[in-house]
Amino acid sequence: MYDGAVQDLIDELGHLPGIGPKSAQRIAFHLLSTDPTDVRRLADAIITVKEKVRFCATCGNVAESEQCRICADPRRAEDLLCVVEEPKDVVVIERTREFRGRYHVLGGAIDPMNGVGPDDLRIRELLTRLGDGKVEEVIIATDPNIEGEATATYLTRMLVPLGVTVSRLASGLPVGGDLEYADEVTLGRAFEGRRTVS
Amino acid sequence: MYDGAVQDLIDELGHLPGIGPKSAQRIAFHLLSTDPTDVRRLADAIITVKEKVRFCATCGNVAESEQCRICADPRRAEDLLCVVEEPKDVVVIERTREFRGRYHVLGGAIDPMNGVGPDDLRIRELLTRLGDGKVEEVIIATDPNIEGEATATYLTRMLVPLGVTVSRLASGLPVGGDLEYADEVTLGRAFEGRRTVS
User: Fold this and answer.
1) Sequence-ordered strand ranges (E) for chain B
2) What residues does the Toprim domain cover (chains A, B) (predicted)?
């Protein structure tokens, strides 16, 4: 529809997740009327991220050297390991400042519909990490959806025989939420996981 | 939150229109796990668009040389000029294959709330173009919203004294639409612009 370079850019932007043809067009025209140095900074950031950032050899989190910030930190407890799906989950958990252990990033969840099996995740690396017996508890913090639950069940079955404590994050009502708007499954889980307070 | 390069990319992506922090993060992680040649192609497309694409000296449309494809085409009628807000409007009108004239792209619409006045649009260039008397009809095809209507009114007032025919695109019910869901203003316009069929 457009002349060469504009259409090329719209096509490339359209490959990004969550960017449809209309958004791609909007972003392309935004870039056309943006200051060249700002546009250059975006292009550089894209190139730099591919050059500099890799995945931590130990846990699979994003890192700018062999090991990520957390794995390289000697103050983090070695006996507590939290298993998550993606690097962004690490950020979310770090933000709570509640967790003092280390992470293991699977790189996704078991999802047969999209052709993701256990071998596509960093499960073998997890078992290797557990080999030295330092880890005492593995907290499985996969997403509370079908794929996350399937992954958690699979991992639990693999880890329990190794003699390690396996735990899962609590399911229940979100703090600040409203009972009226809770779905049945969440409410069911909240009953199941109820705590005695007196 | 993230290490240097990832956070830089998220920040840069967050400056794009319609990209919030969550989308920026999603796109950044998508790029991290994308093949480097594909990522390079996106960065190159961004750089190329700024190097190659400029705005047509005559009409203000996007162009890869001094004049855009349409202004350079001798088969396009010189007596018919369609005034639009943005280059994307040219594409939309071209898609109808109904219009055989030329375009003038204003580069926006009068919008005092966002500090856009008549001097920020390519109105002076429009008057210069009309100077040689070749254009007989100016079709104002600004958006049918408050800013577009204000721009159309302003242009009409400037163009009528020049002795040129000024027209506006018809307002009315969208084809394939449903009378029940038409808003009052559109329905009012449809009555106003009704045509005798017998």
Assistant:
1) 54-55, 62-63, 80-84, 102-105, 137-140, 165-168
2) 79-174
* Contacts across the A-B interface (CB distance below 8 Å): 147
Is the interface score ipTM higher than 0.85? no
Can you read off the two tokens belonging to residue B145?
Answer: 């919203």
How is residue A28 written in tokens?
A: 């392309």
What is the per-residue pLDDT across A45-90, written as a single tens digit (0 to 9) for each? 999 999 999 889 999 999 988 999 999 999 999 999 999 999 989 9
User: Which residues are within 8 A (CB) of B29 and not within 5 positions of it... i.e. 6 or more apart?
Assistant: A86, A87, A88
| Closest by Cα among A5, A35, A30 to A19 | A30
- What's at A31, amino acid-wise? L
- Output Rg (C-alpha) for chain A, integer angstroms: 21
Chain B positions touching A29 (Cβ under 8 A) are 86-88
The distance of A179 to chain B (nearest Cα, Å) reads 27
Instruction: Note the pTM of the prediction, 2 decimals.
Output: 0.73
The span from the CA of B11 to the CA of B7, in Å, is: 6
CB contact B157 to A (< 8 Å): no
Contact A87, A81 (CB under 8 A): no
Note whether B26 contacts A: Cβ–Cβ < 8 A: yes
- Contact B171/A at CB under 8 A: no
Q: Tell me the HSE value of A38 on the side-chain side, using a 13 A CA sphere.
A: 12
